[in-house]
Design brief:
Layout lengths: L13 E12 L2 E7 L15 E7 L7 E12 L4 E7 L7 H7 L5 E8 L10 E7 L3 H10 L5 E8 L13 E8 L7 H7 L8 E8 H14 L7 E7 L5 H7 L12
C-alpha cells in the first residue's frame, strides 16, 4: 500500500520489442524495450511508475500471468524504456525470461501506474528499500534537484550487487549487505540515522515484513504523517508472486492494520 497513489485507469496492452539487454550485476539484468509499440506508451511523472508485464506459464499449464515491475528509465528521444529484472538463476518466470531475452523478442505490458515522485517542497529526503526497490530509488535520485539533501539505504545480499547511482552530493547513499535479508535491517538503519532538521519526504518500499518494521519506526517512533511517506511491500519472503498478490486483500498482506 502506498500513502500517495494516483487514480487507476484501464489502458490497453502494448506490445514492445527487446532492443538490448545488459547484465548490471549477477543479480540484475536490464532489458531495454522499444519498437513501434512505444508510440502507444503514455509516460507518467512518478519515479516509481510500474507496469504489468504479461507472461505465459510453461506447458502444460500455459496460462497467462502478469508480473509487476518498476520502469527504471524512459528515453523519449530513443523511444525506449528500461526495466531492471532481479534474477535468481532459473527461479521464477520473469527473471529467467529477462536473462535469456535477445533483441527482437516481444513482450506485452499494461500501464504504467505510479504513486510517488519526490516532493519539491520537502527539506530533505529519506529513501530505503531492497534490490526490488532499487530501480525506483535510483529513478527518484535521478529526479532530485542538485542541491537536495537526504539519505538512502539500500539492502542487498552481497557486495557484487552494489551499483553506481546518480545521487546529488548532499544525499548519502548507504548499502547494507545482508545475505539473510533480516526483517529489521532497514528499520534499524533508519532508526539509527542522524535525523535532519525540517520536513522529510519518505519513500520506503521492499519486502513486506521489512516494510512493517519500517512503518513502526516512521510512524510510531518518529511521528510522521501519512502524507509524508510512500510505503509499500513489493514482495514477501516465502511467497510466490501470485500468493503475495492474493494476500494483499488479507490482513497479513497489509502494511497498515485496517481500522
Amino acid at each position: 500500500m502506498s500513502s500517495r497513489t494516483s487514480p487507476r485507469t484501464t489502458r490497453p496492452s502494448i506490445e514492445l520489442e527487446v532492443v538490448a539487454t545488459k547484465t548490471l550485476s549477477p543479480h540484475l539484468v536490464r532489458v531495454t524495450f522499444g519498437g513501434a509499440g512505444f508510440a502507444d506508451f503514455e509516460d507518467r511523472v512518478e519515479t516509481d511508475k510500474y507496469v504489468k508485464l504479461m507472461f505465459t506459464t510453461p506447458p502444460p499449464e500455459s496460462r497467462p500471468v502478469t508480473r509487476t515491475y518498476t520502469i527504471r528509465r524512459v528515453d523519449h528521444v530513443a523511444h525506449t524504456l528500461d526495466v531492471d529484472f532481479v534474477v535468481h538463476g532459473d527461479e521464477g518466470l520473469a527473471g529467467p525470461w529477462a536473462a535469456n531475452a535477445g533483441p527482437g523478442a516481444t513482450l506485452s505490458l499494461l500501464g504504467p501506474g505510479g504513486g510517488y515522485a519526490p516532493n519539491p517542497d520537502a527539506e530533505w529526503y529519506l529513501l530505503a528499500g531492497d534490490l526490488a526497490a532499487l530501480p525506483a530509488i535510483a529513478a527518484a535520485l535521478d529526479a532530485l534537484p542538485a542541491d537536495a539533501v537526504g539519505i538512502a539505504y539500500i539492502e542487498v545480499s552481497s557486495e557484487d550487487a552494489i551499483l553506481p547511482l546518480n545521487a546529488p552530493d548532499g544525499v548519502e547513499v548507504h548499502w547494507i549487505i545482508d545475505p539473510e535479508h533480516g526483517v529489521d535491517q532497514l528499520a534499524d538503519a533508519v532508526r539509527g540515522a542522524a535525523w535532519k532538521e525540517g520536513r522529510v519526504d519518505v519513500f520506503v518500499h521492499g519486502e513486506r515484513e521489512s516494510m512493517k518494521s519500517l512503518r513502526r519506526v516512521l510512524f510510531d517512533e518518529r511521528g510522521l504523517e501519512r502524507a509524508q511517506v510512500s510505503i509499500s511491500g513489493y514482495w514477501a519472503r516465502g511467497r510466490t508472486e501470485d500468493r503475495f498478490q492474493a494476500e494483499k486483500r488479507e490482513p497479513v498482506g497489509q502494511i497498515f492494520t485496517p481500522a
